[in-house]
Amino acid sequence: MSLFQSFDPDDEPKWRRLRQLRAVPIRMVLPSVVTLLALCAGLTSIRMSIEARFDWAIAAVAIAAALDGIDGRVARFLKSTSRFGAELDSLTDFVNFGVAPAILLYVWALDDAGSVGWIAALIFAICSALRLARFNVSLGGPKKPEWQSNFFVGVPAPAGAMIVFLPVYLELLGAPHGVLTAPLVIVYTLAIALLFVSRVPTWSGKLVGRQIPRDMVLPLFVVVVLVVALLVSFPWETMSVLTLMYLGALPLSWRSFHRHMAKDAGHPPEANGDAIPEGGDDPESGPPPAQ
Predict the structure, then answer these.
(1) How far apart are alpha carbons 195 and 29 in whole angstroms?
(2) For strand 151-153 and strand 201-203, is the pairing parallel, antiparallel, or unpaired?
(3) Please, what sign has the CA dihedral across residues 196, 200, 205, 210?
(4) What is the extent of the structural domain holding 247?
């Protein structure tokens, strides 16, 4: 028997040839293309951080977050979800919202603290990976009430990546960069990292946006245009305000979640303890990270 046997296409079973020649619908490819564009943005953010162009690095992460919110919706709209897309989405999220922010913070300020600063960056990236892994595992859990889809367990990765930049926003607004910058950034970075892996319920807003009252359509357009205009004209002021609003809403989301739990259980919220479900849609981004 020859080690390298000759191959005759005519001898190959017909069903196998047909399977190889079968074209892949473009709708199956588009969601992964969007995910790869998000990955390109995240990797570009790492380059911008190394070059100390921190404003562009933050903008690249923001673009990655926007694309991350699109790919899952595109996949479901085109009915092209796949296991491959889900795995690619998770790996992309780790790079964009775990690695890229950690490198930006380290190059910007944490390197002033030496190894301690690097450890803080590592913890942030690791907590991001754990957050994503926990969400992926929770997708196969038991079905939960519909209202729980309006809550995440812990801060989602894209939101965590944007709010951890608050110290950078403040410096871009003119805050001084002194000897206390690195220690304060370490504490803040570790706090956001813990929010990643915490069981704090946070609003997702998915159920709110499914239907909009007819009389609120025009005001909604105005609000969206206003926010976009503020982001373009006053990016760091707007991002700072949005970050503080998000952090200030965490206690309110906790209270709202336990009110729902108390309503379902028929007893006060205190009796529910920390019974927070692992599930819920997540922008890791967007509804399940499947494509």
Answers:
(1) 34
(2) antiparallel
(3) positive
(4) 22-204+235-272
Give tens-digit pLDDT for 48-107: 999 999 999 999 999 999 998 888 788 878 877 888 888 898 899 999 999 999 999 999
Residue 176 and residue 169: Cα distance in Å, rounded? 12
Read off the amino acid at residue 186. Answer: I
CATH number at residue 42: 1.20.120.1760
Give the span between the Cα atoms of 69 and 29, in whole angstroms: 17
213-242 b/e with 16+ CB inside 10 Å = b?
Answer: eeeeeeeeeeeeeeeeeeeeeebbebbbeb
Residue 285 lies in a domain: no
User: In this structure, which amino acid lies at residue 199?
Assistant: R
pTM metric for this prediction: 0.80
C-alpha distance from residue 54 to each of 99, 165, 172, 181, 231 (Å): 15, 10, 9, 16, 16
